[in-house]
Amino acid sequence: MTDTTSATKTYDVAVLGCGLLGSALARNFAAKGHRTAAWNRTQAKAEALAGGGVSALSDVDEAVRSSKLVVAVTSTYATTREALAAVADWTGTTLVNVGTGTPAEAEELKAWAEARGVHYLDGAVLCYPQQVGTKEGMVLYSGSAEAWAEHEQTLMAPGPYSMFVSDNVKAASVLDTAIIGGFYSAALSAYVEASTYALDQGVDPETLNAISELAFHALAATGKEGVGAIASDQHETETATLGVYAEGCRATLGAMQSAGHQARLLAAAVENLNEAEKAGLGSLGFFASTKVARTNA
Q1: pLDDT of 192-210, one tens digit each?
Q2: Three-class DSSP category at 54
Q3: Cα–Cα distance between 160 and 139 in angstroms, integer?
Q4: Quick one: 108 and 225 in the same domain?
Q5: What is the domain range of residue 79?
Q6: How many CB atoms lie within 10 A of CB 56?
Q7: Residue 184 lies in a domain
Q8: What is the pTM of this model?
Q9: Fewest beta carbons less than 10 Å away: which of 111, 131, 170, 230?
């Protein structure tokens, strides 16, 4: 494909999909000085952004043709393909998709883009729409290193934690799945269980907040230790063993259930630790439980 020169492109970036996240991204791109267009199936949603320095376009083909960069923020990978199905001219335009999906869907959309000669980046938004453009803004990108090099300045606009994580196109989605789905949401659910129990037992909310903050700091440090242990497969420890954690968790589960609490997340953790002990890992560190984390363990 022969790239169109920058002079022939009206916009630096076009945002497709003007929901909460798409609108936040479009406003942020414009606020950072990037010439920005927006398109949405419901034209009124795109037009609602016009007052913030964003040009509303009614034709998706025009949005692609006139922009250096297209950032798709539709509900699914399928709706992104549907919206772009009729686009005939991708000359000089890079596609980035930040809609929610799976690693497999990221690879499928890469193949779809490559079949049309389009540079593709997959994205994952790891912040709330209201955090876009703030010091907490974070969008992860993976895929074409060439596309990232060309559009890095624009794609960093959502916030300082935005970054290119890998030329493996599914990496951003894998991190989204692991950190937001597998860890953050599960951790919040466990904290709901724990906080409900503590407050029901008469703990003062301010005290609970103070102790929780200490636990969060400890978790951050322990998490780094865990990544190292899992990556190196080194699990010897001079502190509390997995067996000690298992015994403590079983006692805690009994206490919470005796008080009338389901403690479903803790019960799942106990089940996992029990499996690790059965596998002979009780004398190793907590992160040895990685050995029973896979279905083929």
Answers
A1: 999 999 999 999 999 999 9
A2: strand
A3: 9
A4: no
A5: 8-173
A6: 20
A7: no
A8: 0.88
A9: 111
